[in-house]
Amino acid sequence: xxEIAERGELVQLILMCLAISxxxxxxxxxxRDSSGGVQRNGYNAHPTSAKSKGAGVxxxxxxxxxxxxxxxxxxxxxxxxxxxxxxxxxxxxxPIDKVCGEGLLPDTVEALARLxxxxxxxxxxxxxxxxxxxxxxxxxxxxxxxxxxxxxxxxLHQKMVDHAADCGVRLLWRTHVTGLNGKGVFxxxxxxxxxxxxxxDGANSFIRRWSGxxxxxxxxxxxxxxxxxxxxxxxxxxxxxxxxxxxxYITPVGSMEVCAAVISxxxxxxxxxALRALPGLAARLGQGEPTSAxxxxxxxxxxxxxxxxxxxxxxxxxxxxxxxxTGEGLGLAFRxxxxxxxxxxxNDLSRYEAAHRRLxxxxxxxxxxxxELDARPSLRQRITRIFAKHPQLFAxxxxxxxxxxxxxxxxxxxxxxxxxxxxx
Length: 424
Hints:
alpha+beta
């Protein structure tokens, strides 16, 4: 029976690698070319709230972005590069905090640089690679081209806010979107005309629902909790600790501060309880003291059938989610922003629809693969031991994760991993 179970795990791994390699290459090749189509005319107006009564029509813009988080700000910055008038609105005020592992992978750093955003050494911590730890086993690999950056979410958001303002994005904070129609949106009861409306308002997007882009798919959720600690980082890597039904993430974000986050399917599993299952990590964090309150959030996997309708387009988590286990949420949003701006400049949102499908493939399938390891601890432990024994194989995995490998390389890596599992 154990041998049959092992063969089953191996077959599943091979099928997983085939699926990843097929979708992976398409994701890397996301470009400006369009394919397919979206509804170009006949936008179906949706009811606005009662607050829209009597609103004055005294505002106009080319691009109106609902949501002033990183995705919305990136979309605004990218659109300004083409000279569009851009207005971004959000009910909150900066800097906006959100639970996140606070590690920006190398491809995310590159996407930010293309938007004109970089970090001073004092604003974060350079990260050379990723380390997996599972009980007594561990595997470590460095990023193949350039470092990642650990940076507080509030620091990232404030830099993006400042840069968006410098680029000419009009930022309206503490402003509520109260309705949507075929001409634009209502902001606190005032009609604003907009040529395009961008929904960047998160996983529970109002714009997605009002524009008819929501779907009835069931979404499997996981729950994350984050806290910062004043302690000297003991690593220059992002550390991922695998436990029974949970992962804990350690990201250095300064010379004397680390971000600790835990993710599980248990909404009641807070950091303190999770750390009891990871005594080595608990001992390290116990040498310091918390510098922030514990903050919770939800992460999920979701792909939408469509992300554009008429003059409305979705971006970031509003357009679909990848689990935080990938570390790719922000990077994906920044790459979407560039593709969206290209489509706006071409006056053809079908280009963005096609590019969005390609861009999400790699992170989505990597997320499914990592969640499969979470659900199969025996397989994960064997793979971690192989990574520890063959660091060059883990290096190839990390390179694939950050988009530095072709689909053929991913398939070859899967075959080599499968062979090592077979002979282990």
